[in-house]
Amino acid sequence: MELIDHKELKNELFESEKVKEEYEKLNVMYEIKKQIIRYRIENNLTQKELADRIGTKQSAISRLENDDYNPSVEFLDKVAHALGKKLEIRFN
C-alpha cells in the first residue's frame, strides 16, 4: 500500500468542483469559530460568561464553538459586541 501525503490528497480531492465548494463552505464557519474562541480567550471569558453577556445559555456558545451549527447573523452580531468587536460581512 502506497502512502499519499496530505497535499497530494487535497489536490486530488480538489479536482472535484463539488468538493471545493463544500470545503469553502466549511472553511468560512471554521474561521468564524476560530476567531470567536480566540477573542473569548483574549478577554479571559468562559463560555458561560460570554453567554451571560448576550443573554443565552452556555450550551449555545459551546454549540457555536464546537458543533456543526449554523448561527444566525443576529446571534453572531451579539457575540461580536459581547467580545468588543464589530461583525462585518463582505462579499469578495
Descriptive account of the structure:
The protein has 92 residues and is mainly alpha-helical. It has a single domain (6-83), classed as 434 Repressor (Amino-terminal Domain) (Orthogonal Bundle). Helix content is 66%, strand content 0%. It has 5 helices and no strands. The protein has helices at residues 6-13, 17-42, 47-54, 58-66, 73-82. The longest helix has 26 residues, at 17-42. The radius of gyration is 17 Å and the shape is elongated.
Salient structural properties:
single chain, 92 residues, mainly alpha, 5 helices, 66% helix, 0% strand, Lambda_DNA-bd_dom_sf, DNA-binding, DNA-binding transcription factor activity
Brief overview:
The protein is mainly α. It has helices at 6-13, 17-42, 47-54, 58-66, 73-82. It is elongated.
CATH-defined architecture:
Orthogonal Bundle
Q: Tell me about the largest β-sheet.
A: none
Assembly category: single chain
- CATH top level is Mainly Alpha
Q: Might you state the CATH topology name?
A: 434 Repressor (Amino-terminal Domain)
Keywords: DNA-binding
Protein name: Transcriptional regulator, XRE family
InterPro entries: Cro/C1-type_HTH, Lambda_DNA-bd_dom_sf, TransReg_Diox_bact_type
Pfam families: HTH_3
List the helices and strands and how they pair.
Blueprint: H1 6-13, H2 17-42, H3 47-54, H4 58-66, H5 73-82
Helix pairs in contact: 3-4
